[in-house]
């Protein structure tokens, strides 16, 4: 209830149902002015001024990723991503670097994920020269202090020991193995043995292979003069010699087929009173011409007011949480993934209900109201990605990093606006494949009734062993 106060009189107005809410037309996306240029050594640079606060921040994207680490050294990328910053530089020890940054309330951070590495900094504009100098040191002359490498490996070992504490983490990890294959670079798991195979020289060699100026995109946003910022970049990074051209064929890493074609899989956790469920199959990439329509499909299926929420959670009372999302990636196939959490005895009805909703959106046209609501929510949430200049700059850099066109932002928006009821049903039929859906449950089989075997014609449920291999004693 809403309370309205007027001249001392209190009245009440009933809260509106979500279907009665009206969205204002989403605002146009306007890119702030920016400069893009290349240094003589091949580094691509974006500069975007933002004078709202006396702050400057920047990020370098490096063309690498832990998908390029050897399988028997899984974890090498994460170790490098951590120790690049924590291991100090040739001019400043780890403690000295920490103290210099803390004194200025500044930060320099580094990391490596599946498809890229990044190094970032943030500082007050008055401290830009000093902090950017430290940022350049971390990029160019990391020391990789041996004790920091051992500390990083020890911390990773602790994470291995705790990796089965969370049912959601178990489900996410094991589901990726079912879809991509356990040896795929998109699903490999760090083990004690793969950590023990990593030496300091391996970390240094991985760094030397990829960290070159002609393999980077640098973006800086904040309170600065572009001409002065360009001079600072030239001073700190302009004399960095380029390295050999890296030509990596991403396609050789990408899965050409789904590892498990359908099936029901179980991770037994007898102590649980609820089940965590993931259902899905191999997906696609963001550059698909059908991506805008698939985003609208997501809007129909998900969120407050989406079909899964309305049917599985509200009408049938089968879920604490439920979702079903076409989730693409920039340069390798993502997944269609549905799931949620429910009480143990509702596990099978939950799975059956999600399957019915997937089939329904494939076979029955959505309504005009559903289309409009999904388009509005999709566009409004998309526009939040450009709420401030740093978000916009990050998006532009990633489009260049992955080879997407400069106007991809606007192509996507036009595609969402042009999506029709027929488009949604067409992409649902094309991209949602019930026969390929893999179902994974993390839960207590003794409390799941009816049993999971009732979901398959041959009553087969495959158990997954998540025991952690012991570290080598050598």
UniProtKB/TrEMBL annotation:
Which source organism?
Laspinema palackyanum D2a
Q: Which InterPro entries match?
A: Metalloenz_LuxS/M16, MPP/UQCRC_Complex, Pept_M16_N, Peptidase_M16_C
Q: Which PANTHER family match?
A: METALLOPROTEASE, NON-PEPTIDASE HOMOLOG YMXG
The entry's protein name is Insulinase family protein
Tell me which residues make up the Peptidase M16 N-terminal domain: 61-167
Pfam families assigned? Peptidase_M16 (PF00675), Peptidase_M16_C (PF05193)
- What Gene3D superfamilies is this protein classified in? Metalloenzyme, LuxS/M16 peptidase-like
Q: Where would I find the Peptidase M16 C-terminal domain in this sequence?
A: 197-376
């Amino acid at each position: 209830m809403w309370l309205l106060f007027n001249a001392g009189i209190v009245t009440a107005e009933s809260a509106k149902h979500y279907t009665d809410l009206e969205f204002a037309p989403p605002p146009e996306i306007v890119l702030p002015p920016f400069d893009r240029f290349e240094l003589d050594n091949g580094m691509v640079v974006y500069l975007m001024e933002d004078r709202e606060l006396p702050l400057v921040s920047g990020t370098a994207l490096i063309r690498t990723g832990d998908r390029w680490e050897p399988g028997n050294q899984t974890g090498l990328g994460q170790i490098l991503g951590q120790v690049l910053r924590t291991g100090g530089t040739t001019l400043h020890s780890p403690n000295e670097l920490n103290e210099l940054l803390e004194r200025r309330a500044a930060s320099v951070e580094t990391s490596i994920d599946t498809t890229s590495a990044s190094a970032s900094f943030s500082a007050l504009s008055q401290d830009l020269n000093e902090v950017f100098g430290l940022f350049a040191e971390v990029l160019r002359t990391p020391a990789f202090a041996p004790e920091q490498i051992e500390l990083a490996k020890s911390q990773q070992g602790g994470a291995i020991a705790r990796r089965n504490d969370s049912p959601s983490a178990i489900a996410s990890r094991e589901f990726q193995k079912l879809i991509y294959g356990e040896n795929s670079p998109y699903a490999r798991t760090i083990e004690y043995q793969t950590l023990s195979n990593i030496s300091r020289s391996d970390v240094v060699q991985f760094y030397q292979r990829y960290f070159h100026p002609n393999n980077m995109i640098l973006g800086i946003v904040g309170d600065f003069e572009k001409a002065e910022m360009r001079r600072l970049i030239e001073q700190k990074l302009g004399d960095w010699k380029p390295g050999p051209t890296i030509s990596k064929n991403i396609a050789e890493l990408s899965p050409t087929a789904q590892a498990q074609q359908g099936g029901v899989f179980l991770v037994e956790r007898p102590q649980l009173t609820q089940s965590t469920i993931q259902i899905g199959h191999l997906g696609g990439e963001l550059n698909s011409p059908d991506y805008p329509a698939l985003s609208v499909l997501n809007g129909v299926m998900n969120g407050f007011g989406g079909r899964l929420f309305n049917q599985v959670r509200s009408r049938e009372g089968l879920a604490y949480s439920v979702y079903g999302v076409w989730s693409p990636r920039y340069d390798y196939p993502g997944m269609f993934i549905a799931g949620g959490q429910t009480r143990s005895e509702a596990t099978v009805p939950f799975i059956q209900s999600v399957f019915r909703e997937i089939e329904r959106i494939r076979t029955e046209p959505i309504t005009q109201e559903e289309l409009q609501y999904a388009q509005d929510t999709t566009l409004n949430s998309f526009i939040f990605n450009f709420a401030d200049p740093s978000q916009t700059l990050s998006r532009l850099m990633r489009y260049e990093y992955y080879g997407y066109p400069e106007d991809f932002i606007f192509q996507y928006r036009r595609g969402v606006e042009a999506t029709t009821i027929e488009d949604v049903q067409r992409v649902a039929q094309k991209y949602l494949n019930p026969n390929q859906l893999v179902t994974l449950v993390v839960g207590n089989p003794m409390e799941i009734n009816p049993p999971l075997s009732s979901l398959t014609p041959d009553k087969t449920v495959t158990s997954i062993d998540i025991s952690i291999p012991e570290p080598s004693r050598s």
